[in-house]
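For reference, the entry.
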Amino acid sequence: MRRYANRNGDSGVVAYELGKHSITVRFKGGDRYLYTEDSTGADHIARMHALATEGRGLSTYISQHVCERYARKLD
C-alpha cells in the first residue's frame, strides 16, 4: 500500500492501493476496506483514485458519497 499524503493534515485515511477497477483504503484504526466499481460505481472509483493520488479529500469523499458501499472489509 502507498502512504496517503494527507495534505490537509486531518485525514482518517493513512494508506491506499489502486487497482484497475478498485481501491483499497486503510484508515487510522487499521481497518482496510475494498471499494470496487461493482460496489460503488465506476465514477466514484475514478474520483477516489484521483483524490488518493492528490493526497487530499479522500476520507471526506468516502464519508459523503460511498459510505458503507464497500465490497468487503479486509482482515
About this structure: The chain has a mean pLDDT of 96. The longest helix spans residues 42-54. The longest strand covers residues 13-18.
